[in-house]
Every structure is written in structure tokens, then in C-alpha cells.
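Our preliminary data section would be incomplete without showing what the modeling component actually yields. Below, a chain of 233 amino acids is followed by its predicted structure, encoded as C-alpha cells that our downstream tools consume directly.
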Amino acid sequence: MKINKLITAKGVIFLLIFSILVFIGDRINFSRLVGAENQFFTLFQFFGPVAGAFLGPVVGVMSVLIAEVASKIVNHATFDLVTILRLTPMLFAAWYFGTKKDKLSFLVPIAAIVLFVAHPVGRQVWYFSLFWVMPIIIKLLPKKYGDRIFLRSLGATFTAHAVGGAMWNYLVPMTPQAWVALIPVVIYERLLFASGISASFVLLNTLLDKLDSKTKSEYVNVDKRYVLFRQSA
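Predicted structure:
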């Protein structure tokens, strides 16, 4: 989708809806990040990547960045290095969620694995980075499987995890034992995040489809397969 569609009335309305959701989600903590004070996963993790599907990967990434920065400003967040860098994982997740098979979808998790294993601590727990093979496998699946909403959501949340995990290894001192202890937590959290992304996509998809029918024109990219209460033609 072209960038100029973001500044149309409908694009602005979507950005406003999305920004409100980000603002609310950012204020509700879900779980604490290990190794740093006052850093949390929030409800934003449950819907952040979906903008890439509705606006396309480029504009979707832009909308996520705008919404994230605006939310941080409104919430009076301190823009230290960790906070700034934590903006990036969801940008890559939105790109992943909004694209089919592209080079970035493969290069990002591969780069994350290489960077993680290159670190002295990461090298001792190299198998932790095997989580980040998941987005690659999903993109390589036949379309009828890889395009399923839950698998796309799983790939997106593990892409965010790959970017965040690789950065975290260099920013926050952690022992190999701490990384090992995170393995069951990662499985639990990422399955929850993928479920939340799937559900939020279906709900937003249905809402935008209703807006399309009211305005009699295309609003944003709506996937008719995931519209609730869809009436037969």
C-alpha cells in the first residue's frame, strides 16, 4: 500500500483507532522483563503486529512507530537507550505479519541467531536461539498453511522476540542459567501473544469490514476470510 494512503481520511481514522489501542495496551503490564527494572511486556504485544496486514508492511511499520512514540510521550516515558531500542521489535513483527515471502522475513531471525550465538553468554545457550527458526519455517510452508492467521501471528511474535532477544543479550547482563530458565516462559508467553494477535486481527478485521460496508468504499486491506458474522452473498 502506498504511503499517501496513510494520510487519507480513512488512513487517519485507522491510525487513530490503532493509536488509542496502543495507548491503552501500553498502560497495562503483562509480565516483567528479566534483567531490567521498570521494563514490562504489555497488552500491546497482543495486537501490535496487525497494522502490517491492514496497511501493508511499509505503512504498517510507520503506523506502529507513530503509535508507539505517541504512546510513550503521552505516558511520560523516559526515552533512554533501552526504551528506544524496545520500539524496534514490534516494527519487524508488523513487517512480518504484513508480508508474504520476502527476504527481510528470513534475514531478521537469521541475523538475530548469529548475533546471539556470537555473544559469549549466548554461545553457551545457543539452543535458546532455535526459537527464532520458527518465523523462517512458517514462511517456508505452503501458502495454505503458512497464511493461516495463528501461524502468521506466531511467526510475527517470534520475530519480535528474535529482535528483542538478540538486543537484550548485549544490553542486559544475564547468565546462561537465566536464559535457560526463560525457555518455558517464552513458550507460554509467545503462545499467548500469538493467540492475542490472532484474536485482535479478527476483531479489527470485522470492524473495518463493517466500516467498509457503511462507507461503500474500501477502507484498508480487509481479509474476508476472517470477518465475523459475515452474511452470505
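The chain has a mean pLDDT of 83. The chain has one domain: 3-218. Preliminary results of this kind motivate Aim 1 of the renewal.
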